[in-house]
Automatic annotation (TrEMBL):
Signal peptide (residue range): 1-28
Protein species of origin: Saccharomonospora marina XMU15
Recorded GO MF terms: hydrolase activity
Entry-linked Gene3D superfamilies: Endonuclease/exonuclease/phosphatase
Pfam families from the UniProt entry: Exo_endo_phos (PF03372)
Keywords assigned: Hydrolase, Signal
Protein name according to UniProt: Metal-dependent hydrolase
Length: 278
C-alpha cells in the first residue's frame, strides 16, 4: 500500500490539470428519494466501430440511458485532427445540458501561438452542480501512458456525493496493480462515494479483487448475466466497472447496448441509493 503522503502529493500535482465548467443542469431538481444513476462510458474519442467520428451518437447513447452522472474515458480536448480539434467534454455537456469537469492526463503545449493546449483524459458530466474537482496523476512506468483519477464533488439536492472516474493502464499489469492500490488510498473512507471507469482487467484479476475488498462491485451486487462491455459489438469481457463505497447502495446495474457502433466499449449504468448518514 502506498503511503498517504504520496497520495497527497499526487493530489496537489494532478489538480493543476482539472477543468470545471458549469452548464445549466437538465432536470437536477427532481423530487423524491435521493437516487443517482451513474454511467461509465469509454467513448474512444467519439470514433465508433464503423470508423465514423460522431459525438452526436455518443450524446444520444447518454441521453437514452437517462444517467444523472457520467464518467467518460478516452476524451479529447483540442487533441488532434482525429477529433477535429474539438473540446469533446464541453461539446457533450452543451448537447446534454450537463455540468462538466475534465481531467487532462496528457497535457501538451499548443501546436501554435494562440491555440489551446493539447489534452486527453477523462471527464465527468453531471445533471447536478459540481462543487469542486481535482485530477490526480496515478503511478506510471516510463514506457506507459499517464493515467489519472478525476474526482468531482456533486451537490445532489443538498447532499454531497463524491464521484471518481479513472482509466487504468492497458498494457501493464504492474502499473494497474500500483494504480488500484493508489485508488483505495485516495478514496479511502470518503462518503458517499462511487468509482467508475475502464479498468482494463477482468473481475478475477488481482487489480479488481483489490478494489472489491474495499468497495462494492455494483455488477456483482445488482447486475445479471456476464456484464460484458468489450468489444462493443461482441462483448465477452467485463472491464468497465462501477464500485460504490460507504453511503451508496446499488439497486440495479445494466450494460447499455442500444448502439454498439457508437464506441468500442459498451457503457455500464447503475442506479444507486444515497443512504442517510447516522
Amino acid at each position: 500500500m502506498l503511503r498517504r503522503g504520496l497520495a497527497i502529493v499526487l493530489l496537489v500535482c494532478g489538480a493543476l490539470t482539472t477543468m470545471v465548467t458549469m452548464v445549466t443542469p437538465a432536470g437536477a431538481a427532481a423530487h423524491g428519494a435521493r437516487t443517482v444513476t451513474v454511467l461509465s462510458f469509454n467513448i474512444h474519442h467519439g470514433e465508433g466501430t464503423d470508423g465514423v467520428l460522431d459525438l452526436d451518437r455518443i450524446a444520444e447513447v447518454i441521453r437514452e440511458s437517462r444517467a444523472d452522472v457520467v464518467g467518460l474515458q478516452e476524451v479529447d480536448r483540442h487533441y488532434s485532427g482525429r477529433s477535429d480539434w474539438a473540446d469533446q467534454a464541453g461539446a457533450l455537456a452543451d448537447r446534454l445540458g450537463y455540468h462538466v469537469a475534465f481531467g487532462a492526463n496528457i497535457d501538451r503545449d499548443p501546436p501554435a501561438a494562440g491555440r489551446p493546449r493539447i489534452q486527453y483524459g477523462t471527464a465527468i458530466l453531471s445533471r447536478y452542480p459540481i462543487v469542486r474537482s481535482t485530477n490526480t496523476y496515478l503511478y506510471r512506468s516510463p514506457d506507459q501512458e499517464q493515467r489519472g483519477l478525476l474526482h468531482s464533488e456533486l451537490d445532489v439536492r443538498g447532499t454531497r456525493v463524491h464521484v471518481y472516474n479513472t482509466h487504468l493502464a492497458a498494457s501493464s499489469r504492474t502499473d494497474r496493480l500500483r494504480q488500484t492500490r493508489q485508488l483505495t488510498e485516495l478514496i479511502e473512507d470518503t462518503a458517499p462515494a462511487v468509482l467508475v471507469g475502464d479498468l482494463n482487467a477482468l473481475p478475477s484479476a488481482t487489480e479488481i479483487t483489490t478494489l472489491a475488498e474495499e468497495f462494492t462491485d455494483a455488477w456483482v451486487a445488482a447486475g445479471h448475466g456476464a456484464g460484458g462491455t468489450y468489444p462493443a459489438e461482441n462483448p465477452d469481457r467485463r472491464i468497465d466497472y462501477v464500485f460504490t463505497g460507504t453511503g451508496l447502495r446499488p439497486v440495479w446495474a445494466r450494460v447499455i447496448d442500444a448502439d454498439p457502433a457508437a464506441s468500442d466499449h459498451l457503457p455500464l449504468a447503475a442506479r444507486l441509493v444515497v443512504e442517510p448518514t447516522s
